[in-house]
Amino acid sequence: MNMKWIVINAVGLTPRTTNPSGMRVGIEMSLQTILEKGYSKELTKAEAILLYDSKILYEMSLEQIAHFQIRQPRLCIEFERFHEAVEKTLGHPVFSHEFAFAQRLKDELNHKVPRPSIEEIFNLIPKEKLIIVEIKAEETDENEHSNI
Predict the structure, then answer these.
(1) Averaged over 1-27, what is the pLDDT?
(2) DSSP H helical ranges for the chain
(3) Which of 7, 39, 59, 85 could be stapled to 66 by a disulfide with Cβ–Cβ 3.0 to 4.6 Å?
(4) Are 79 and 52 in contact (CB under 8 A)?
(5) Which domain does 117 fall in, by range?
């Protein structure tokens, strides 16, 4: 990765080096420094926005994206890309509601727990919100399609 430098404004989200009076208000750090912090600590809102805007996570592999973003409560990349990264890394589909249980996904990514069964996944949904629809295929008359 190329080293990129940014300035984080101490009071706002807009990167800048000086306030209106000309006094320096930001602190310089590289995107690499923010990425390194993100593996062990929660990023601030400003740091997450800067990573998102920089698109630097697109330079990472899907596995790296999954392991990095699962540690962060704020998205640093589009959810669709994060979802894809987790599915490819785990090697199986992941339902959207499973992301509400980030610790379980993190444990699965780190091989601490096995892949959940479909019953365990459905049990994550509150009973009052769970709707299961069974659709049976209709039997067709063979003569019905004989003119095709």
Answers:
(1) 41
(2) 31-38, 45-54, 62-69, 79-90, 102-109, 118-123
(3) 85
(4) no
(5) 5-131
